[in-house]
Amino acid sequence: MPHSARRSGRAFHESAPCHAEAHWAEAFPRPEQGILTASTRSLPSLLSLLFSLLSLLAACAAPSAPQSAGLPTAATPRTLTVFAASSLLDAFTDLGKAYEAAHPGVTVAFNFDGSASLRAQFEQGAVADVFASANQKEMDTVAAAGLVVSGAAKPFATNVLVVILPADNPGNLQTLADLARPGLRLTLAAEVVPVGSYSRQALERLNAQYGASFREGVLANVVSDESNVKQIVAKVNLGEADAGIVYATDARAALTLITLAIPAEYNVTARYPMAALSAAPNPTLAADFVAFVLSPAGQTILQKWGFLPVTP
Protein backbone atom coordinates (compact mmCIF):
# COMPACT_ATOMS: atom_id res chain seq x y z
CA MET A 1 0.00 0.00 0.00
CA PRO A 2 1.36 3.46 -0.85
CA HIS A 3 2.62 5.40 2.11
CA SER A 4 0.17 8.25 1.48
CA ALA A 5 -2.76 5.84 1.64
CA ARG A 6 -1.60 4.47 4.97
CA ARG A 7 -1.37 8.00 6.34
CA SER A 8 -4.92 8.66 5.23
CA GLY A 9 -6.09 5.49 6.91
CA ARG A 10 -4.30 6.35 10.15
CA ALA A 11 -5.70 9.86 10.11
CA PHE A 12 -9.24 8.50 9.67
CA HIS A 13 -8.94 6.16 12.64
CA GLU A 14 -7.33 8.75 14.85
CA SER A 15 -10.11 11.24 14.13
CA ALA A 16 -12.95 8.74 14.55
CA PRO A 17 -15.25 9.67 17.46
CA CYS A 18 -15.63 6.09 18.71
CA HIS A 19 -13.14 4.01 20.73
CA ALA A 20 -13.71 0.71 18.99
CA GLU A 21 -9.95 0.29 18.42
CA ALA A 22 -9.23 0.27 22.14
CA HIS A 23 -11.91 -2.33 22.76
CA TRP A 24 -10.54 -4.47 19.95
CA ALA A 25 -7.08 -4.37 21.49
CA GLU A 26 -8.49 -5.41 24.84
CA ALA A 27 -10.44 -8.29 23.36
CA PHE A 28 -7.64 -9.55 21.14
CA PRO A 29 -4.26 -8.68 22.72
CA ARG A 30 -1.08 -8.61 20.72
CA PRO A 31 1.12 -11.67 21.02
CA GLU A 32 3.46 -9.99 23.45
CA GLN A 33 0.56 -9.61 25.86
CA GLY A 34 -0.11 -13.31 25.87
CA ILE A 35 -2.65 -15.50 24.17
CA LEU A 36 -6.14 -15.60 25.64
CA THR A 37 -6.65 -18.93 27.45
CA ALA A 38 -9.44 -20.53 29.40
CA SER A 39 -7.45 -19.94 32.58
CA THR A 40 -7.35 -16.15 32.08
CA ARG A 41 -10.65 -15.41 30.40
CA SER A 42 -13.79 -17.54 30.14
CA LEU A 43 -15.68 -18.06 26.89
CA PRO A 44 -18.85 -16.32 28.13
CA SER A 45 -16.79 -13.26 29.01
CA LEU A 46 -15.28 -13.23 25.55
CA LEU A 47 -18.69 -13.47 23.89
CA SER A 48 -20.04 -10.69 26.07
CA LEU A 49 -17.13 -8.44 25.20
CA LEU A 50 -17.48 -9.28 21.51
CA PHE A 51 -21.18 -8.40 21.61
CA SER A 52 -20.38 -5.06 23.26
CA LEU A 53 -17.76 -4.33 20.62
CA LEU A 54 -20.17 -5.07 17.77
CA SER A 55 -22.82 -2.84 19.38
CA LEU A 56 -20.30 -0.03 19.69
CA LEU A 57 -19.27 -0.38 16.05
CA ALA A 58 -22.92 -0.28 14.97
CA ALA A 59 -23.47 2.86 17.01
CA CYS A 60 -20.46 4.50 15.39
CA ALA A 61 -21.73 3.66 11.91
CA ALA A 62 -25.35 4.70 12.48
CA PRO A 63 -26.25 8.25 11.42
CA SER A 64 -27.25 10.54 14.23
CA ALA A 65 -31.01 11.06 14.69
CA PRO A 66 -32.34 14.39 13.44
CA GLN A 67 -33.03 16.97 16.11
CA SER A 68 -36.75 17.60 16.64
CA ALA A 69 -36.28 20.90 18.45
CA GLY A 70 -36.12 22.91 15.26
CA LEU A 71 -39.08 21.24 13.53
CA PRO A 72 -42.48 22.93 13.49
CA THR A 73 -44.95 21.45 15.90
CA ALA A 74 -48.71 21.20 15.54
CA ALA A 75 -50.59 24.17 16.94
CA THR A 76 -52.16 23.65 20.32
CA PRO A 77 -55.91 23.14 19.73
CA ARG A 78 -57.95 26.08 20.96
CA THR A 79 -61.66 26.91 20.89
CA LEU A 80 -62.84 30.47 20.31
CA THR A 81 -66.38 30.92 21.63
CA VAL A 82 -68.57 33.54 19.96
CA PHE A 83 -72.03 34.56 21.18
CA ALA A 84 -73.86 36.11 18.21
CA ALA A 85 -77.34 37.36 17.34
CA SER A 86 -79.52 34.83 15.51
CA SER A 87 -79.65 36.96 12.37
CA LEU A 88 -75.89 36.45 12.02
CA LEU A 89 -76.10 32.65 11.82
CA ASP A 90 -75.36 32.15 8.12
CA ALA A 91 -72.80 34.92 7.73
CA PHE A 92 -70.93 34.11 10.94
CA THR A 93 -70.87 30.41 10.13
CA ASP A 94 -68.99 31.33 6.95
CA LEU A 95 -66.77 33.75 8.87
CA GLY A 96 -65.93 31.00 11.34
CA LYS A 97 -64.93 28.60 8.58
CA ALA A 98 -62.72 31.23 6.95
CA TYR A 99 -61.07 32.05 10.28
CA GLU A 100 -60.42 28.38 11.06
CA ALA A 101 -58.85 27.88 7.63
CA ALA A 102 -56.43 30.73 8.32
CA HIS A 103 -55.68 29.59 11.89
CA PRO A 104 -54.89 25.84 12.06
CA GLY A 105 -55.70 24.38 15.45
CA VAL A 106 -58.43 26.95 16.18
CA THR A 107 -62.10 25.93 16.32
CA VAL A 108 -64.74 28.66 16.34
CA ALA A 109 -67.77 27.62 18.40
CA PHE A 110 -70.93 29.71 18.08
CA ASN A 111 -73.93 30.29 20.30
CA PHE A 112 -76.66 31.95 18.23
CA ASP A 113 -79.68 33.44 19.99
CA GLY A 114 -81.58 36.66 20.39
CA SER A 115 -79.33 39.47 21.58
CA ALA A 116 -81.39 39.94 24.75
CA SER A 117 -81.15 36.22 25.51
CA LEU A 118 -77.38 36.30 25.03
CA ARG A 119 -77.11 39.28 27.35
CA ALA A 120 -79.12 37.39 29.97
CA GLN A 121 -76.79 34.40 29.62
CA PHE A 122 -73.80 36.63 30.36
CA GLU A 123 -75.57 38.01 33.41
CA GLN A 124 -76.04 34.43 34.61
CA GLY A 125 -72.32 33.66 34.31
CA ALA A 126 -71.88 32.39 30.75
CA VAL A 127 -68.30 32.67 29.49
CA ALA A 128 -67.34 33.51 25.90
CA ASP A 129 -64.61 35.26 23.95
CA VAL A 130 -66.66 37.52 21.68
CA PHE A 131 -70.16 39.04 21.74
CA ALA A 132 -71.87 40.22 18.53
CA SER A 133 -75.20 41.96 19.12
CA ALA A 134 -77.95 43.11 16.77
CA ASN A 135 -78.28 46.41 18.62
CA GLN A 136 -76.25 48.80 20.70
CA LYS A 137 -78.55 48.56 23.72
CA GLU A 138 -77.60 44.98 24.64
CA MET A 139 -73.92 45.69 24.03
CA ASP A 140 -74.09 48.75 26.29
CA THR A 141 -75.76 46.69 29.04
CA VAL A 142 -73.07 44.02 28.89
CA ALA A 143 -70.35 46.70 28.83
CA ALA A 144 -71.88 48.48 31.84
CA ALA A 145 -71.55 45.23 33.78
CA GLY A 146 -67.80 45.25 33.10
CA LEU A 147 -67.98 42.24 30.78
CA VAL A 148 -66.57 43.93 27.68
CA VAL A 149 -62.96 45.00 27.11
CA SER A 150 -62.95 48.77 27.57
CA GLY A 151 -63.37 50.57 24.25
CA ALA A 152 -63.48 47.31 22.32
CA ALA A 153 -67.05 47.47 20.96
CA LYS A 154 -67.06 48.22 17.23
CA PRO A 155 -69.96 48.39 14.73
CA PHE A 156 -69.30 45.91 11.95
CA ALA A 157 -72.49 45.69 9.84
CA THR A 158 -75.94 47.13 9.27
CA ASN A 159 -79.28 45.64 8.23
CA VAL A 160 -82.79 46.74 7.29
CA LEU A 161 -86.29 45.31 7.74
CA VAL A 162 -88.61 43.55 5.29
CA VAL A 163 -91.98 41.83 5.51
CA ILE A 164 -91.94 38.10 4.68
CA LEU A 165 -94.87 36.05 3.37
CA PRO A 166 -95.38 32.33 2.65
CA ALA A 167 -94.84 31.43 -0.98
CA ASP A 168 -98.59 30.89 -1.53
CA ASN A 169 -99.46 34.18 0.22
CA PRO A 170 -102.55 32.89 2.09
CA GLY A 171 -103.22 36.32 3.59
CA ASN A 172 -103.31 37.88 0.10
CA LEU A 173 -101.04 40.75 1.09
CA GLN A 174 -100.45 43.16 -1.76
CA THR A 175 -99.14 46.25 0.03
CA LEU A 176 -97.93 47.21 3.49
CA ALA A 177 -101.37 48.68 4.17
CA ASP A 178 -102.74 45.12 4.28
CA LEU A 179 -100.80 44.45 7.49
CA ALA A 180 -103.55 46.30 9.39
CA ARG A 181 -106.41 44.38 7.79
CA PRO A 182 -108.47 42.65 10.51
CA GLY A 183 -107.96 38.90 10.67
CA LEU A 184 -104.44 38.87 9.25
CA ARG A 185 -102.02 36.69 11.25
CA LEU A 186 -98.76 38.50 11.90
CA THR A 187 -95.74 37.30 13.85
CA LEU A 188 -93.15 39.68 15.27
CA ALA A 189 -90.20 39.44 17.60
CA ALA A 190 -90.85 40.46 21.19
CA GLU A 191 -90.28 44.14 21.85
CA VAL A 192 -87.24 43.41 24.04
CA VAL A 193 -85.54 41.73 21.07
CA PRO A 194 -83.72 44.15 18.73
CA VAL A 195 -85.68 43.21 15.61
CA GLY A 196 -88.92 43.47 17.59
CA SER A 197 -88.04 46.97 18.72
CA TYR A 198 -87.01 47.98 15.20
CA SER A 199 -90.26 46.56 13.77
CA ARG A 200 -92.40 48.66 16.09
CA GLN A 201 -90.36 51.76 15.26
CA ALA A 202 -90.95 51.15 11.55
CA LEU A 203 -94.69 50.68 12.11
CA GLU A 204 -94.76 53.98 13.99
CA ARG A 205 -93.09 55.70 11.06
CA LEU A 206 -95.56 54.13 8.64
CA ASN A 207 -98.37 55.98 10.42
CA ALA A 208 -97.30 58.96 8.33
CA GLN A 209 -98.16 56.99 5.19
CA TYR A 210 -101.21 54.97 6.27
CA GLY A 211 -102.79 57.00 9.05
CA ALA A 212 -102.37 57.49 12.79
CA SER A 213 -104.05 54.20 13.70
CA PHE A 214 -101.97 52.04 11.35
CA ARG A 215 -99.47 50.85 13.95
CA GLU A 216 -102.25 50.02 16.41
CA GLY A 217 -104.15 48.05 13.77
CA VAL A 218 -101.06 46.05 12.80
CA LEU A 219 -100.19 45.16 16.39
CA ALA A 220 -103.75 43.93 16.91
CA ASN A 221 -103.01 41.23 14.31
CA VAL A 222 -99.93 39.87 16.10
CA VAL A 223 -100.44 36.18 16.93
CA SER A 224 -97.01 35.53 18.47
CA ASP A 225 -94.02 37.39 19.88
CA GLU A 226 -90.87 35.41 19.15
CA SER A 227 -87.49 35.56 20.84
CA ASN A 228 -85.46 35.73 17.61
CA VAL A 229 -85.82 36.16 13.87
CA LYS A 230 -85.25 32.49 13.06
CA GLN A 231 -88.45 31.61 14.92
CA ILE A 232 -90.37 34.19 12.89
CA VAL A 233 -89.05 32.72 9.65
CA ALA A 234 -89.99 29.21 10.81
CA LYS A 235 -93.57 30.20 11.68
CA VAL A 236 -94.12 31.89 8.33
CA ASN A 237 -92.55 28.96 6.48
CA LEU A 238 -94.88 26.55 8.30
CA GLY A 239 -97.94 28.65 7.44
CA GLU A 240 -98.60 29.46 11.10
CA ALA A 241 -98.60 33.16 10.22
CA ASP A 242 -99.55 35.13 7.11
CA ALA A 243 -96.66 37.53 7.50
CA GLY A 244 -93.71 38.47 9.67
CA ILE A 245 -91.19 41.28 9.94
CA VAL A 246 -87.53 40.27 9.89
CA TYR A 247 -84.15 41.51 8.70
CA ALA A 248 -83.49 41.58 4.97
CA THR A 249 -80.67 39.07 5.48
CA ASP A 250 -83.08 36.50 6.96
CA ALA A 251 -85.44 36.88 4.02
CA ARG A 252 -82.51 36.43 1.66
CA ALA A 253 -81.51 33.17 3.35
CA ALA A 254 -85.10 31.83 3.38
CA LEU A 255 -85.45 31.17 -0.34
CA THR A 256 -89.00 29.77 -0.09
CA LEU A 257 -90.48 33.08 1.12
CA ILE A 258 -91.54 36.21 -0.72
CA THR A 259 -90.98 39.70 0.60
CA LEU A 260 -92.53 43.14 0.73
CA ALA A 261 -90.00 45.94 0.97
CA ILE A 262 -90.34 48.72 3.51
CA PRO A 263 -89.41 52.07 1.92
CA ALA A 264 -86.17 53.57 3.19
CA GLU A 265 -87.87 56.65 4.63
CA TYR A 266 -89.89 54.43 6.99
CA ASN A 267 -87.39 51.67 7.53
CA VAL A 268 -85.05 51.31 10.50
CA THR A 269 -81.36 50.57 10.08
CA ALA A 270 -79.99 48.06 12.57
CA ARG A 271 -76.36 48.57 13.57
CA TYR A 272 -74.48 45.49 14.78
CA PRO A 273 -71.66 45.99 17.32
CA MET A 274 -69.20 43.34 18.47
CA ALA A 275 -66.50 43.20 21.12
CA ALA A 276 -63.97 40.97 22.84
CA LEU A 277 -65.09 40.12 26.37
CA SER A 278 -63.06 41.00 29.44
CA ALA A 279 -63.16 37.42 30.78
CA ALA A 280 -62.36 35.85 27.40
CA PRO A 281 -60.46 32.55 27.82
CA ASN A 282 -58.57 33.44 24.61
CA PRO A 283 -58.16 37.24 24.67
CA THR A 284 -55.65 37.42 21.82
CA LEU A 285 -57.80 35.27 19.56
CA ALA A 286 -60.89 37.25 20.55
CA ALA A 287 -59.34 40.55 19.48
CA ASP A 288 -58.00 38.94 16.31
CA PHE A 289 -61.42 37.54 15.34
CA VAL A 290 -63.02 40.97 15.77
CA ALA A 291 -60.29 42.44 13.56
CA PHE A 292 -60.94 39.73 10.97
CA VAL A 293 -64.67 40.52 10.83
CA LEU A 294 -63.83 44.21 10.35
CA SER A 295 -61.26 43.44 7.64
CA PRO A 296 -62.05 43.58 3.89
CA ALA A 297 -62.18 39.77 3.80
CA GLY A 298 -64.67 39.65 6.66
CA GLN A 299 -66.80 42.43 5.19
CA THR A 300 -66.96 40.60 1.86
CA ILE A 301 -68.45 37.55 3.57
CA LEU A 302 -70.99 39.68 5.44
CA GLN A 303 -72.07 41.45 2.26
CA LYS A 304 -72.44 38.12 0.48
CA TRP A 305 -75.21 37.38 2.96
CA GLY A 306 -76.90 40.74 2.43
CA PHE A 307 -75.45 42.77 5.29
CA LEU A 308 -74.67 46.38 4.55
CA PRO A 309 -71.46 48.18 5.49
CA VAL A 310 -71.31 50.57 8.41
CA THR A 311 -71.62 54.20 7.41
CA PRO A 312 -70.81 57.21 9.62
Compile the SSE list and pairings:
Elements: H1 3-15, H2 20-27, H3 43-61, E1 78-85, H4 89-102, E2 106-113, H5 115-123, E3 130-132, H6 136-144, E4 154-159, E5 161-165, E6 186-189, H7 194-210, H8 214-219, E7 222-226, H9 229-237, E8 243-247, H10 248-253, E9 258-261, E10 270-276, H11 283-294, H12 296-304
Parallel strand pairs: 1-2, 1-3, 6-7, 6-8
Antiparallel strand pairs: 3-10, 4-10, 5-8, 5-9
- Stretches where pLDDT falls below 50 for ≥5 residues? 1-44, 56-73
Class from secondary-structure proportions:
alpha/beta
Helix content: 40-55%
CATH homology-level superfamily of the domain at 78-158 and 272-304: Periplasmic binding protein-like II
Walk across the major sheet and give the strand order: 2-1-3-10-4
Tally of DSSP β-strands? 10
CATH architecture of the domain at 78-158 and 272-304: 3-Layer(aba) Sandwich
- CATH class call of the domain at 78-158 and 272-304: Alpha Beta
Q: Tell me the radius of gyration.
A: 38 Å
Q: What's the helix-strand series?
A: HHHEHEHEHEEEHHEHEHEEHH
Largest sheet composition = 5 strands, mixed
Name the average pLDDT.
84
Shape: elongated
